[in-house]
Amino acid sequence: MLPGLFACAAAVGTALGVHTLLPALPAMTVAVLLGLLAANLPGVSGWSAGPGRAGLDFVGKHLMRAGIVVLGLKVSVLEVLGLGWPALLLITGVVLAAFAGTYGIGRLFRLPPHISLLIATGFAICGASAIGAMAAVRRIRQQDTVLPIALVTLCGTLAIGVLPLLIGPLGLGPETFGAWAGASVHDVGQVVATAQTAGASALAVAVIVKLTRVLLLAPMVAAAGIHHRIGSDAGGRLPPVVPLFVVGFIAMAALRSAGWLSPGALGAAAVLQDLLLGMALFGLGSAVRVGQLLRTGTRALLAALASWLLIAALGLAAAVVLVPGR
To answer: For the segment 298-307, what is each residue's pLDDT rounded down to a tens digit?
Structure first.
């Protein structure tokens, strides 16, 4: 596995370097794009499909789960509760509506149920991390997570470029725009990249709203696990209702909420999370063959774009309610 592991480490170092030079590009997005290049450039694609594949697959599965655990250290329950119950209920409603609507769109475009489920989870909650968690609890193959992760990365990157252009035409104030970004953009890094274009106040609101969505990862995954157990008629061992790494995510969120960790420790954890998720996303991106994606993923792409528009509309409506006076 060493060749694949070394390649992932080099890729995430490159992604972080690109993000440092171009802050508007989230490191996780760059990591996926580098993986796509590794899968499709002549001379490199053969290596990623052959000698490097074992390490790339290991990273895509196991480091993704480790990154989800560390993601919990970004979630402070006290900060989320500071929004107030009406706001929490509103954001929860947006997540549930986005999940149901995106799943319905996927089925309308005749996508398989498990692909529709993964796309809905990633779009509604927190991008690739949520897709990895849902795939684990529903025992969905790692190969089947590649297309949903590619789509959630594409649409999240689209949001970084499109949403700031709408601030003027929609007459949005910084805090309203931040709430919109937090309620509708998929990955945490993509939310930061989108919201920071409107200033510090927009970014502060966006992060809290987004982390409220991230906090819903555990109950959504648990609900999916319970539903899978009730509906399963297969013999053998069923997956746990809540995977161990999701329990770790909850434990890390509780640790963050307790206030026992210093700012330095939280900063180190943020770097570790970027390293783990960046390596995992490079590994998953390296399995995407663009030619095959164009042949088989056209309906999925159209479904993803329709879902992106739905979530953007839901998020905008929620933002206007959350920040009266726009």
So the answer is: 899 999 999 9
**pLDDT for the residue numbered 82:** 87
pTM exceeds cut of 0.85: yes
pLDDT by residue (tens digit) across 79-105? 888 888 999 999 999 999 999 999 999
**Residue 239 confidence (pLDDT):** 62
Using H for helix, E for strand and C for coil, what is the string for the chain? CHHHHHHHHHHHHHHHHHHHHCCCCCHHHHHHHHHHHHHHCCCCHHHHHCCCHHHHHHHHHHHHHHHHHHHHHHCCHHHHHCCCHHHHHHHHHHHHHHHHHHHHHHHHCCCCHHHHHHHHHHHHHHCHHHHHHHHHHCCCCHHHHHHHHHHHHHHHHHHHHHHHHHHHHHCCCHHHHHHHHHHHCCCHHHHHHHHHHHCHHHHHHHHHHHHHHHHCHHHHHHHHHHHHHHHCCCCCCCCCCCCHHHHHHHHHHHHHHHCCCCHHHHHHHHHHHHHHHHHHHHHHHCCCCHHHHHHHCHHHHHHHHHHHHHHHHHHHHHHHHHCCCC
Which pLDDT value is given to residue 187? 87
Residues in the chain: 326
Average predicted confidence (pLDDT) for the chain: 89
- CA separation for the pair 199, 111 (Å, rounded): 39
CB 270 within 8 A of CB 72: no
Amino acid at 287: A
